[in-house]
Amino acid sequence: MQTHNLGYPRIGNHRELKKACEQYWAGKISANELQQTARSIRVQNWEAQKNAGIDVIPCNDFSFYDHVLDTCLMVGAIPKRYHDLLIQKQLSEVDLLFAMARGYQKDEYDITAMEMTKWFDTNYHYIVPEFSINQSFTFFSEKVINQFNEAKREGYTAKPVLLGPVSFLLLGKEKEKGFHRLDLINKLLPVYKEVIKKLDDGNVFYLQLDEPCLSLNLTEKEQQVFTNVYKELQKEFSHIHFIVAGYFECYGKNLQTAVSLPVKTLHLDLVRCPSQLDDILTNEFIQSNKQLSLGIVDGRNIWKNDFEQSLTIIKKAIAAIGKERLWIAPSCSLLHTPCDLDLETNELCLPLTVKNWMAFAKQKLDEVVTLAKLATDEPSEQALKALEENKLAIKDRNTSSLIHKPNVKSRVQHLTAKDNQRESVFAIRKQLQQELLQLPSFPTTTIGSFPQTKEVRSWRAKWKKQELTDNEYNNLLKAETEKAVRWQEEIGLDVLVHGEFERNDMVEYFGEQLAGFVFTENGWVQSYGSRCVKPPVIYGDVYRPKPMTVEWSEYAQSLTKKWMKGMLTGPVTILQWSFVRNDQPRSETCTQIALAIRDEVVDLEKAGIKIIQIDEPAIREGLPLRKENWQQYLDWAVRAFRISASGVQNSTQIHTHMCYSEFNDIIKSIADMDADVITIETSRSQMELLDAFALFKYPNDIGPGVYDIHSPRVPSKIEMMELMEKAKAVVPGEQLWVNPDCGLKTRGWDETKTALTEMVAAAKELREAVAATV
């Protein structure tokens, strides 16, 4: 049996890539220094995998920003608006990549970034390829060749990893009508062949093609495209050992298509779908000469593998097709897990008891190798010792009194239908809220956070090191909050926010105050580009020991006569953006969190906060990959939100926020959430996402984002007004709010102040235009 890995975290053990990219963008380091950091991370990653004993190590799993964007550059799918940057400005490849990801606003140029959305059901964001009806492709970026050759120079016979051609097209978007993106496959495939030919010239042996779209609902036509593409590749490169990797789900109705692909090895995600092993081990497959990659170690979560359970699965496969046709691997790329558990040395954050139940990317490599050793006829003494240690850790977790709280379970069991319903329907609530709040038409607000400057972050670091007392730290934060409130009043925002300067992360902040969570100091994972998050770990039953945000919201409201929004993260997002316990259904854990948030909502209302935002950007992200499984998830996810929001009076206005999601297929469920106001990301898509709300005749109020906060580019008042005019064309003006796409935590104050001032001016002009027609 061979062991291999599908991909390794690209950020570096200490987020070296994030720091280098941000220094480069700020002009503090050179392109050469940026490349040196990247090379150092790649070499360290290869060395870590070699030291663990992985037989086949991946390359080209590293990216400066996103592997889908890398593929766009590889095949020359560069939108026309960037062509001048290549021809006139002669940008380097890495600068072009950053311009496509972040936008370009320099000299005489003002070019928007490409759209970004969630990578399947993860919190990783990818850049969405853009396709036109006359799209052409050309071999533009040789990054995959360069990294393969670099690995060879470092002494590694590495396996290049590419996003497969069919998934690349399916993950993109047509920017014109009149064609389907899969119609472009005959133009795209020659470029893939050119890339593979160049790898072949370098004596590549293994080549991994990721085709995660094989786990989606595919039409017969789409399945046929998969078959045709791989027949073409096999015909031309029969001597190359192609590994096709699907993950995050079963192959489902695409199983026969996947199995029949003329490739040497097919990868199965046996963590998300252990049952598919039985489906695939038919006589037809057994009699073929195909190999199976068993994705047996969870690449999405941080819990230790249960060796006994995994060995049962591995031995079943051995009995059917023999060891020589099996590979052992993680279920998917380890991109979604933190780098190294050994870096966690603070027992106050992560108690040893809980740490002993966990495994990060480095430890998961050890698990893969150990499982392969244990599946041999004569396991080594070292492997058998590892098995016994694993049994003890699994038993300790299963029986731990830290995990189960009877009063929490009882509260969930005694919920009734009344607990997830507001007192009255929206039409009645809206009238009462307007009488109380007296907001103008096109009310302006922000999504919640304001820039967290280096100074603010330094205060938190000093406070954690006890270099600042609690009182000193709180006084600094209060002064920063007051500055933010005064500035919002000055520019004329209608509904204010306190800025969230006390918060480290929108999920971690709440997790730190909820029972049932633990934390890491270095458990970072990439969310997009240089944005890394440190998900909390839900290990046990969740409840709220005391109020979490009331004191800060109350203080901020005391500073102004305008309305102050209370800011909370919703139960589904806290669940999705944490590493979640895997010993009970996710729906039960989510309901526990919902009750904790409900308690906070009720306390905020008692404290005089009459507008409360419960952010749920991860609602769509949690959807199962295939539609037949959607409704069950949506039922409990919507119920959890409603539980969190339904403890308040009619006159209290509940907001929610969602970003970087396609809403068309779940619009009814979004309406069922029954938030009084929903704010959504729409600027990168030029308000396209609003069409779903218009077609559905969404009854509640909507704030379509008018500028993209994930880019440093500052839009003009005219641009924002044009976007709002597009919104007015499909949604009645009386339902519309004006706001940014998302929170402003990662932006700088200069760009934030300019953009929000322009936004308020745009809203005022919209009001004047309406008043003039009355």
Proportion of helical residues: 40-55%
- In CATH, what is the class of the largest domain? Alpha Beta
- Order of strands in the sheet with most strands: 1-14-13-12-11-10-8-2
For the termini, the CA-CA separation is 77 Å
Radius of gyration: 26 Å
**Would you count the extended β strands for me?**
24
- CATH fold type of the largest domain: TIM Barrel
The geometry reads as globular
Stretches where pLDDT falls below 50 for ≥5 residues?
Answer: none
Which strand-content bin applies to the residues? Answer: 5-15%
Q: How many helix segments?
A: 29
How would you sum up this structure, described in words?
- With 774 residues, the protein is an alpha/beta fold.
- The protein folds into two domains: 2-73 and 129-399, TIM Barrel, CATH 3.20.20.210; 406-773, TIM Barrel, CATH 3.20.20.210.
- 43% of the residues lie in helices and 13% in strands.
- An eight-stranded parallel sheet has the order 1-14-13-12-11-10-8-2. A six-stranded parallel sheet has the order 15-20-21-22-23-24. A two-stranded antiparallel sheet has the order 3-4.
- Helix 25 packs parallel to helix 26.
- The model has no long low-confidence stretch (mean pLDDT 94).
Task: Give the gist of this structure.
The protein is of the alpha/beta class and 774 residues long.
Task: List its traits.
single chain; 774 residues; alpha/beta; TIM Barrel; 2 domains; 8-stranded parallel β-sheet; 6-stranded parallel β-sheet; 13% strand; globular
What's the topology here?
Blueprint: E1 2-3, H1 16-25, H2 31-52, E2 58-59, H3 67-74, H4 83-87, H5 93-102, E3 104-106, E4 109-111, E5 116-118, E6 125-127, E7 130-131, H6 143-153, E8 159-163, H7 165-170, E9 173-174, H8 185-201, E10 206-210, H9 220-236, E11 241-245, H10 255-260, E12 265-269, H11 276-280, H12 283-287, E13 291-297, H13 307-321, E14 326-330, H14 352-355, H15 361-374, H16 381-399, H17 406-413, H18 426-437, H19 454-464, H20 470-491, E15 495-496, H21 508-511, E16 515-518, E17 525-528, E18 531-533, E19 537-543, H22 550-558, E20 563-569, H23 571-576, H24 586-606, E21 611-615, H25 630-645, E22 653-658, H26 667-673, E23 677-680, H27 690-696, E24 701-704, H28 717-730, H29 749-773
Parallel strand pairs: 1-14, 2-8, 7-9, 8-10, 10-11, 11-12, 12-13, 13-14, 15-20, 20-21, 21-22, 22-23, 23-24
Antiparallel strand pairs: 3-4, 5-6, 16-19, 17-18
